[in-house]
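Thanks for the sequence, V.! I ran Cardiolipin synthase right away. Repeating your input here for the record:
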Amino acid sequence: MEWNLLFWHFAVVCGFLLAAILVMSILRKQRTSSSAFAWLMVIFFAPYIGVPLYLALGGRKLKRDAHTKENIHLVGQDTIPLEDADPIDALLREYGIPGATCGNEVRLCQNGVETYNELIKLIDTAEHQILITTFILSRDEIGKAVVEKLAKKAASGVTVRLLLDDIGSLFTSRRFLAPLLKNGGKVAYFMPLLRAPFHGRTNLRNHRKIAIADQKLVLAGGTNIAKEYIGPTPFEDRWLDLSFVLKGPAVRHYLEVFQSDWEFASGETVNIIPPCRKVSEKSGKGVVQVVPSGPDVPKDPVHDALLTAAYTAEKRLWIVTPYYVPDEALAQALRLAAQRGVDLRVLVPEKSNHRLADLARGTHLRELAECGGKVIKYPHMVHAKVVVVDDRLGVVGSANMDMRSLFLNYEIVMFSYSKAEIKPVHDWVESLMKEGKQGVQAVGPMRDTAEGVARLIAPLL
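Predicted structure:
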């Protein structure tokens, strides 16, 4: 009996000390007060759930794990002069992001069929090297077709490297990838869950989507490799997404991001030094800036660029996102933009694939509408992540308008500053808005309470 009492006394003391350490960690490392408050409430009122959750999910950019991956270092090349740079470009340079590069060619892939065809074309025409990062590689017929194509290229002597996020592609086993592996291709999983379940890795996901052929052609955006995203023929339940094909000097930066991610996940260095000269060849007149974000990038460049966009927009600020759960600073900046007369529009799916995210967005969208912003609900699932600012900026990439993408995930986004590249993005967003329904509905007390709870725990998602 005495030993039992001693054991339980020891357990209580250890639990108290662990909770105290976690509280100090939360207060020091959480970026927003809402995030810190949410974690503190869970740990105080449900410690048996909150403590293991925090150990598994971790805080933002935990030094122990996030910093085991070295920061990305992008090499500046052919950047426009600082005095001619957009305010957002100038801000990002202060964060260590190279300035916008000239001489690029950008072509949008406006639906899943176009994106699938471009991916297959990229694989089929590659002569030396294929590098692919994706959050999801499904085991469906689309994933199988892509794996078979990659296996055939590997068998012909082409270097093939495939990087998958371990959570996003949790059920994509090496058995499924066997054709590629048997033919000499290599596969790596980013931050495997089971390797260190209580090291905060679970919360740090690689959400980047990049495909590169021969160090001179990039296919990127928000699209994963699965039937609901892409395919050779139209599919009634396919999600609406946006990707793009890029040629020119900016390809180099996608290469550097892939190299950093691959080396961290596999231990192997993908050689892009000396740089392939074809990468630097000017391919068009596009002025674009490649902006990675996440634990391997100092500060929060995508979030802060969007914040700057909200404060500097003069005529138009259009946003397309599957999940609208911004932090309070960004939400307030967008509300103020609407109040000062900017054409502020947010397009979201009427129902997304995440019920909790739909609940968490409710109060944000109503507050935005009350300030003069327009909320447009699209009748089908929209997975695209797009921003248009006046006639001076178009943003397409992998980052959603939520706190997970803006503060936790490894993301990559392309900022276009040239009108020839901005107009197709503008026109694509405008076409979606014509199909959507404007307005937000009033909700009853029960729904309002549920949305409030979801918004409170949103920083934990």
